[in-house]
Design brief:
Elements: E1 17-21, H1 23-27, H2 36-53, E2 57-62, H3 63-70, H4 75-82, E3 88-92, H5 96-106, H6 112-123, E4 128-130, H7 134-139, E5 147-149, H8 151-160
């Protein structure tokens, strides 16, 4: 599945919408909360996680999330993030297609780990890839296979379209 750059809006029509949070999103609550943007992203990320906990959203997990988290030098952070794997509805393992798609993403200037995360999210059929990395969001703003968004953007959209 080659990566194509076309804007495709995703609707909340899915009964179980899937989301993928990258490591920077998972780690946001551990960042310096004295900055308003970080505080807002933290609150938005926690809101998204509450929807995962109550079953309103499905979490896609991956081997690259696990690998990056296992390399986190802070045990408290590692443990807090690792518990989310149990709440995930799918756990994506490395495969030829993931590596192939990641290499294609890297040709667009995406860093290798980010490319693997996005490729895993696409493989897991996530509608939204949640990150706090503005450069990644901008580079993938026209990806037709997944919407790459900041947690604030997704939380606002989910809140606006909730029943």
């Amino acid at each position: 599945m080659p990566v194509s750059l076309v804007i495709v809006p995703y609707l909340l029509a899915n009964l179980f919408m899937k989301v993928y949070l990258d490591n920077c999103a998972f780690n946001r609550p551990f960042d310096d909360q004295n900055h308003i943007r970080i505080r807002l992203e933290t609150e938005a990320k926690l809101y998204i996680q509450s929807l995962i906990e109550d079953g309103s959203l499905e979490l896609v997990w991956s081997y690259i999330l696990e690998m990056e988290n296992n390399h986190n030098p802070f045990q408290e952070k590692r443990n807090a993030i690792a518990r989310w794997k149990r709440l995930s509805m799918s756990d994506i393992s490395e495969s030829f297609s993931i590596i192939k798609n990641a290499k294609e993403l890297m040709s667009l200037g995406i860093k290798s780990k980010d490319a693997l995360h996005v490729s895993c999210a696409i493989e897991g059929k996530a509608e939204y890839f949640v990150t706090t990395d503005d450069k990644l969001i901008n580079k993938l703003s026209r990806c037709k296979y997944i919407s790459v968004v900041n947690p604030i953007t997704l939380a606002g959209y989910l809140d606006e379209h909730s029943d």
